[in-house]
Hints:
The chain has helices spanning 21-38, 51-58, 60-83, 97-103, 143-154, 211-215, 263-269, 275-308, 316-336, 341-344, 347-378, 384-396, 406-428, 443-466, 475-478; strands spanning 2-8, 12-19, 88-93, 110-117, 121-124, 131-136, 157-160, 171-181, 187-201, 223-227, 244-257, 310-313, 431-436. With 498 residues, the protein is of the alpha+beta class. It has 3 domains: 2-118, Alpha-Beta Plaits (2-Layer Sandwich); 157-257, Chitinase A, domain 3 (Roll); 290-478, Trigger factor, domain 2, CATH 1.10.3120. Strands 7, 8, 9, 10 and 11 form a 5-stranded antiparallel beta sheet that branches. The protein has a 4-stranded antiparallel beta sheet with strand order 1-2-4-3. Strands 5-12 form a two-stranded antiparallel sheet.
Amino acid sequence: MKVTQEVLPDSQVGLEIEVPADLSQKTYDQVLSKMMRTVNVPGFRKGKVPKQVFLQRVGVTQFKAAVLEELVQNAVDKAIAQEKIDAIGNYQLKTSFEELVVAYEPGQPVTIQASVDVPPRVTLKQYTGLSVQAEEILPDPERVDTTLSQYQNNLATLVPIEDRPAQAGDVAVIDFVGKVKNDSGEYEEFQGGSGTDFQVELEEGRFIPGFVEGIIGMALEEAKDVDVPFPDDYSQAELAGKPAIFSITLKEIKEKELPELDDDFAQEISEFETIEELRASLTERYEEEAKEKTRANKEAALIEALVEHLEAEIPNTLVQKEVDFLLTQTIMQLSRQGIDVNKMLTRELVDGMRQRTRPEAIDRLNRTLALGEVAKQEGIQIEEEALQEKIKEAMATVEDPSQIDPDRLKQVLTEELLQEKILTWLEENNTVELVPEGSLQTEAAAEEMVAAADAIEAEAAEVADEEPGNATVDVEASAAPAESEEPAKASKKSKSAS
Length: 498
């Protein structure tokens, strides 16, 4: 079988395959015999149908199409094997299939034009002598105190107060009715905008601006109307930027009584015996976090510099595979958030998500290819002993080893160890300058981050709109508190507060 190859863009190989007459006839006879044994024709026993009756029953054009499907697949498979082509994914037929069907005659040669994806063609122009900058992350000296204050706040005792107005830091119990100005200029109640015996922590920034501030200074049993316009960037468009009034009645005032930061406190919230041990553990934890972030910044800077020197043709097969992986991760994340993805995922939505995900998939592949080329050029490999030790460590943390795919685990850990080794080599053979945190955050980069955050929020909103029951507004969601760091319970075993 004569095969002519052609190098095509996007890491493809074009194939012109000349199928000889004998193979054309052989395929025709094989498909005819197979189909005649299986087709049912009234008046004839299965397998005893005359050829002309069979062709009349099935249709000559339809039968020729079945022959050509078999012929093309076999021809491409044989051409790939004959030419020793490292093909990935399925072939793409370049010849019009309809034209092949019309022109096909059994026993006559057939010329097929197809293309196949092959592994990426990669050129890494430079990977040593690079000079990059990375932000150094230093531990926040106030973070330990902030964390302990949060612990104190969580364990605070609420003491009823009757002899003074509400003040910042209190916990208030209120009844309220919210009204928003409509297009006619009148105020009307909105869904979820009312509450009874609603407990509010009087801390600035926990709710939409003006809500908490309006309660501060109120006396017990006092009723008051508070003007609280919704922010222009409020997440629900029907409320964003609209004036609102909340009629509030203050029913209770409670003051927080914080526990002392002593050894008893440390023992209650952790497995440490003394407050100093807890402080030391938190300090160590945050120092390690800062080192890890600095390391991640250095690695990201090196990889970014590598990609700038990378020329890669990536076949569509690999891009689509990476898109599928990222899409699966997104869907799993939505499921964990309680969203019924089976009801939400329409074809149009999935197609849109695929389109938005494609650039990220290509970026990820470029980074992987750049690191892989360094490993290839420098002969960087993982020692079997190190891999087995890593597998042993990972399995020691698994409660039910039977649920682990050993081959998949080995693959993941091999990739992880190899990447660590490549990045260590890169850092040793290039220059990384550490600069203060925030100094590389250019205005353009900040705008990109904001745009990315907006895109994620828009996609989440699009998903939420498809999910029944997510269109209502409640005041707690309308005035959701800002997230604060919730410290994990400290543990003496790990010597950290994780």
